[in-house]
Amino acid sequence: MLYPVTLSPTMPPKLRKKKKSPTAPKEDINVGTSSKGIEKPEEIVSPFPREPSTVSMEGVESTEIAPSTKDREVTSTTPSVEEIKKWSPEQVITFLKSKKNELYLREEDIKIIEDNWVAGQAFLLLTEENLLNKPYNLVGGPAKSIAYLIETLKGGEVTLKRKYESPEELSNIIESAVDKSVEKSVEKAFSRQKPDVISVSKLSETMMKKIIDDIGIKTANLSVEDFLPLETVSCEPFRWDIEKEEAHQMQDVEKWFKNVLMLPRNFHVKDVHKQVNYQRHLRGANTIITGGADISVGPSETACVWIETKKTLEDFKEGQAMGELFLIDKLHPTNAMTVLTDCNDNWIIYFFMKIKDEQYIATSRINNRHTALAIIKQFVLEEGQNFHKWIGKDITYQVNLPAPLKKKTKFLESITEADDARMADMVGDMSEQELFNMTARKKLMLVRDYCRLDEQPQVDQLIRQFSDNYENPPMMFA
Predict the structure, then answer these.
(1) Distance CA 203, CA 201 (A)
(2) What 3-state class would DSSP assign to 295?
(3) Can you give the pTM of this predicted structure?
(4) Alpha carbon of 110 to those of 11, 83, 105, 131, 472: distances in Å?
(5) Taking a C-beta distance cutoff of 8 angstroms, is the pair 357, 373 a contact?
């Protein structure tokens, strides 16, 4: 819709348009940074009304918002380009605040520049295009004003006047600026909803604790005594080659675990450090974690334990091992355990535990490889016994499961009552076709979570086939 643009009869005298003779030439006035040799231009009228009025705009020249020519003349207090180049980010912000009223800037506009830590030299390089796009995303008015100020400071010529053909043209320009502002706001809102994708190898302990807190799960710290009595595993420590990269020793680490665990032939111990295309979406934390581990242990070809090995205790990353626990738990039907170790006498084990209908991540630091390996072996044997029953094999093993491991569980992300209520409201308003589409999308998204990263685009294409966009339906497969 086009809106008439009118002039307020109560505008201050400074903004009123002076009368001129019919023969006066209509020329655009270009203003540089020097006042020498420049005729004083006529004062101009802002096209934006402050109060309703019935004054006609027909045949009137209007201008973009800008300070008067007099305000733009170089004075003894105008900073030079060389001075500005030396400004700190704080000085840039102080300067913009001094121009706030002159440029019609808001606090949030200046805050965006402040958040991006723009020093003087970088400030001079900013353009309107920079300011309209990431990382600034300013709206049209402030972006134009700041770009105009920078060009003036650098001594560039800025066209101050422009003649609009009609009030409708000016109204269209205003509507276009508003539409662009709304579009950027919507884009920002969706970007905030987009989950963060983090590799477990980059998960710090602090980041992992925040994720755990966001999804509403607690941790329980167990001592080694909680697992006793237990028949220990006797073995020598693994001897790392200090001069050789850890990843290049995984085959030797694999052999060491095979020898010390001595599992039945229906189990595997594998080097899997190159298999990193696993992921899990933790919706409560709005995060997708990706990655894998070094050594896989479990019944048949199904893992129930992932082991992350490091040369020294200083190399331990607890955030990485806890993130891997979520990955293996999602990947396989078995209960999961992850282990962080130097294959000597530093071991940390993690598994999900359920106590009185509440889920926990159980963590235990064990400074004895004989006890740690015994706990791992009992966990694997018990999971193997259950697994073989699932597939119809009547195989039993001698298992002495420690008390904490009897409470092991699968992780299930909880859905709040608010989520249930919102879903109930949505379902009540859906047609049969929309319900079918929603169910199909949900099932395909579950499939997507189990796919490798390079297979997911094909699943995404299938999900799009069940879109509710009836005006532009997706092309179906032949």
Answers:
(1) 6
(2) strand
(3) 0.52
(4) 28, 21, 7, 12, 41
(5) no
CA quadruple 56, 61, 66, 71: dihedral sign: negative
Tokens 């997706």, residue located: 474
CA atoms of 176 and 365, how far apart (whole Å): 62
Instruction: State the burial class of residue 459 (Cβ atoms within 10 Å of its Cβ: 0-12, 13-18, 19+).
Output: middle
What region, left, alpha or beta, does residue 291 occupy, with left being phi > 0 and alpha being psi -120 to 50 degrees? left
The pair of structure tokens assigned to 190 is: 């969706």
Residue ranges and CATH numbers for the domains of the chain are: 13-191 (1.10.150.50), 196-407 (no CATH), 417-464 (no CATH)
Nearest to 150 by CA among 164, 138, 166: 138
DSSP at 55: B
CA 329, CA 321: separation in Å to the nearest integer? 12
Burial code (b: 16+ CB inside 10 Å, e: under 16) for 393-411 equals eeeebeeebbebbeebbeb
CA 461 to chain centre: 23
**pLDDT, tens digit (0-9, with 9 covering 90-100), for 286-319:** 899 999 999 999 999 999 999 999 999 999 999 9
pLDDT in tens, 264-274: 999 999 999 99
Longest dimension (CA), the chain: 109
For the segment 377-431, what is each residue's pLDDT rounded down to a tens digit? 999 999 999 999 999 988 889 899 999 999 999 998 865 444 444 555 555 566 7
Provide the token pair at 448.
């997507």
